[in-house]
């Protein structure tokens, strides 16, 4: 083979981004297509837990072992995406002692460092735990930002020559002579994102091998190719709290159940979750009782949650899969392991593999195994190096600097920027010329960081959001959506900026509407009023088809000059309350 | 008079012990992240902040409070140094429609900043420590008031203060009285009225003890006219200047003495009365927000400003309507801390009914001095810029005597206009005694 073998990866979640980086590092010609943003599907809708493996230490020990192994890898290669919070499996008085012992033993069997704490010691770590908690197991759980993780993988792949097309939905899988040879994508109508594709057009992309990494959507891609991929999508709700009630991952130590985990995530806490099978990964009910269940049940562990402010809720769909014939009824019993389905071997349709199951913590290991498979199919011999080479932003970060003075930003703002940017802090903030005001107050995101994100993601403000967390704080974009859009206006045309602002605003509303009580209701109302009264967001004339009768307000300068007195002129409304204007006298 | 212990023999550690003592242990460390839940970013606090109005570099109360707290993680220590530019006027508390504990957040942040980030040997720290422990300075200075008054307002000394300590030379130090209020109270033999039902414990604070005993004396005479038995217990600084300078350890030590002394009297049926609105503010709001001594809540619930108390318990309006004084006109300024207690209209409402008196409110702007703030060399200009509106309104008011409840507001009013400044209690004394 003289030409570099080419691979097309479908799906811009953690698995897809991991594969595209892995293959790019091995020197292959790789293209990633994603129908929305990176992380648009399941990856962007998880609770942000970096598993120690503790959660699977009883029910699924192979997964638990993989978790602890990858937990250590990610702490090394993705330092700027990971916060090592530590985790607790907390036992309440009514929880089973036997299970607690099983959990502890399971952790030890799987090589997960585990230490038993008394209730008092656990409360010393986390003062807001319920007073009556009995004891806890401490494990090395952590928090991981899935957005930053995917973006860093994709950015590194692009640096190594990969092509990444977001807002490019696969509409067909191309089959020629009994072999899959590529896909046809439709580029989004609007000119947002970073791809090369012409908006609103279709494009055929050919490759030597196709990887279907679309998770819960794998069945739909399979249908286009004419193969069956029986993914069992299972939804789970997550509720975001406004502040971090806990700084440690808190798990309930009991066999299984809904609402048993609280993950401190950046400035917030995420409460999770439920596990319920659904038919369609994009169309399922999002119900109020699911959110109530999170808050009510987790309040047993952290009572203050019942009074605390939630800022939004979202649902994610797990791409669960089990080999045909297993017949598990309860989705919580389905293995969290992943499966590689080689359609050549399985369905006699070579040229594509589907990847299903799995979880974010082990995304790199999955990517490695799939990349190995792809290389084997294409006859490429190249070693995987993803476990050793840090992601951009996670390179050596030993030199700490005084960010705030140097970059003209306030200390907590500088600290948060540095936590997000990692080793890129100097480049992004230091490379910025000119004033650097805070654009998003809630999450402390400055103009320099916004522009860095725009440089990497084009005009897509949702992509800017996931890179920076701008608009993800407690006002949910009330005070920053338009400021973010404003950063685009010098280099882009007004309609593009409007579209982008609209998409961001709608995306924020989508999750916020699930938290409309208490403070967040006031917040949403304030947001609505501000945007309605200052930006006509309750009916923007520029966005509507009908013309605005401006003359109804004011007949214009000439009319004013001609009119004897304003009160007598039928064309002119008395917008000044009937007061005689200066022009009228002259 | 057993309750009014003579303060002229303080124990050595009371007077000279400047060593910070760690009185907060880790377990009671305040975590105000949940307080950030109430903020919906409306920015009313920022628009009401007098410092933000004149200083574009000051990020405002919303950032200092709920935003900074929300961005904190366990172990994070860096508080932005702009917290030291907050003047602690507490207007943000009043402006907030959503009960965000802004000043509590600011006080706590300032305390943390000073504890963790400020160099204890820096000029700023030493200067702030001295300013916030005014009582100790006053205690010594008032022993030899003439000498102190001469020395402090000697221009050479003022220049040295500015150069060495960063205390502005623009201002004249308030004069120490020849006799402190407590010396006078002692000499007079304490309370002259006794009553079973009407008892007040007077929190005179430092300023009316050392500098303006005429205000304290006016309070005593007015309350005795109404038949109150007055106690003047042992007391320390209310803590206001200490909160404003992040000296929470000093404040806690002072508060412990105050709470203990006054809560004992509350148990005996006394209410606590202050003539300084910052002192009453401190006992009412800041103590329960920051400390957990036995009796803190009782002291908070039983504390009143002097005129407020009389308006509640006596028919002060009727008394005033029947009284008259010599013709005089006042330009009244309501201190921010009075505003926060809902007291900003009481002097004008009352005295406009007093025969002979013309009183005009000079508006709702802040005087700008905010206690020790305007004394700092680097804050002086900000302080005067904030004060400009008030000076202007005072000059346009008919009267050329100022009136206010707050000692430092009165310094600023005098400094900016050259007017004499009176305390409402002094006019009340003139009318009723």
TrEMBL record, chain A:
CDD domains noted in UniProt: GlpA-like_Fer2_BFD-like
Gene3D superfamilies per UniProt: BFD-like [2Fe-2S]-binding domain (1.10.10.1100), FAD/NAD(P)-binding domain (3.50.50.60)
Every BFD-like [2Fe-2S]-binding domain range: 438-490
Residue ranges annotated for the FAD dependent oxidoreductase domain, each copy included: 7-363
Localisation: Cell membrane
Gene Ontology terms, MF aspect: glycerol-3-phosphate dehydrogenase (quinone) activity
UniProt catalytic activity: a quinone + sn-glycerol 3-phosphate = dihydroxyacetone phosphate + a quinol
PROSITE patterns xref list: FAD_G3PDH_2
InterPro entries linked to this entry: BFD-like_2Fe2S-bd_dom, BFD-like_2Fe2S-bd_dom_sf, FAD-dep_OxRdtase, FAD/NAD-bd_sf, G3P_DH_FAD-dep, G3P_DH_GlpA_su
Region (Disordered): 558-586
EC annotation from Swiss-Prot or TrEMBL: 1.1.5.3
Record's bilayer topology term: Peripheral membrane protein
Pfam families: DAO, Fer2_BFD
Pathway: Polyol metabolism; glycerol degradation via glycerol kinase pathway; glycerone phosphate from sn-glycerol 3-phosphate (anaerobic route): step 1/1
Comp. bias (Basic and acidic residues): 569-586
Origin: domain of life: Archaea
Coiled coil residues, start to end: none
Cofactor: FMN; FAD
Subunit structure: Composed of a catalytic GlpA/B dimer and of membrane bound GlpC.
Family note: Belongs to the FAD-dependent glycerol-3-phosphate dehydrogenase family.
Protein name: glycerol-3-phosphate dehydrogenase
Automatic annotation (TrEMBL), chain B:
Keywords: 4Fe-4S, Iron, Iron-sulfur, Metal-binding, Oxidoreductase, Repeat
InterPro entries according to UniProt: 4Fe4S_Fe-S-bd, 4Fe4S_Fe_S_CS, Cys_rich_dom, G3P_DH_GlpC_su, Helical_ferredxn
Keyword Metal-binding listed: yes
Pfam families: CCG, Fer4_8
Chain segments annotated as coiled-coil in the UniProt record: none
Gene Ontology MF annotations: glycerol-3-phosphate dehydrogenase (quinone) activity
Domain 4Fe-4S ferredoxin-type: from-to ranges: 75-108
Entry's EC annotation: 1.1.5.3
Transmembrane segments: none
Comp. bias intervals (Polar residues): 1-13
Region (Disordered): 1-20
The keyword Oxidoreductase belongs to this UniProt entry's keyword annotation: yes
Name listed for the protein in its UniProt record: Anaerobic glycerol-3-phosphate dehydrogenase subunit C
Organism: Halogeometricum luteum
